[in-house]
Amino acid sequence: MRILGLDPGTATTGYGIVDVEEGELTAVTYGVISTLAKTPMPQRLQQIQQELQQLIDDYQPDSVGIEEVFFGRNVTTAITVGQARGVLLLTVANAGLPIGEYSPPKIKDAVTGYGKADKAQVQLMVRNLLDLEETPRPDDAADGLAVAITHYHYQRFENLYD
Questions:
Q1: Domain topology for 2-160
Q2: Is 67 a catalytic residue?
Q3: Model pTM?
Q4: Which of 67, 133, 143, 158 is catalytic?
Q5: What one-character DSSP code corresponds to residue 72?
């Protein structure tokens, strides 16, 4: 099974793709979709859609996990991240792929065993779980891999009840 994990953002959307074979997770690729702040929002969203579609076409994932928007104090940031997340959800839905959505605490818990883990702990566990030589950079790419790992764990659990 191949899983695509997405960490939405308008400036930087992190992604990570993992393969699962007999319960073993292997990183296939990871990185970010970046847009320039000076670019108008419609074109930024279009770029995110086009680059995500290219990832889907190139890597043919079986399912996708996406992080839910964490609503903090900055309403403007939450709205723009929500716009990017909407584009990601639409692109994945148009590709006919199943989607799992996960809150930041669920992702932290699935990867580290502690829902309030800090970013460094999550990155260390992503590196260890995927047996990577170094921590994925930038942080958003590591977050994309964390979402993919989380999606695997939740899908595995759901399959036990099917």
A1: Nucleotidyltransferase; domain 5 (3.30.420)
A2: yes
A3: 0.94
A4: 67
A5: -
* Marked catalytic residue, from 140, 143, 158, 162: 140
* CA 44 – CA 61 distance, rounded (Å): 24
Alpha-carbon distance 56 to 144, whole Å? 14
Q: How far is 152 from 86, CA to CA, in rounded Å?
A: 22
Q: Where are the domains of the chain?
A: 2-160
Say yes or no to pLDDT of 161 above 90. Answer: no
Residue 57: band (very low, low, confident or very high) from pLDDT cuts 50, 70, 90: very high
Tokens 């296939």, residue?
A: 28
In order, the DSSP letters of 7-62 are: E--SSEEEEEEEEEETTEEEEEEEEEEE--TTS-HHHHHHHHHHHHHHHHHHH--S
DSSP 95: T
Tokens describing residue 117: 């883990």
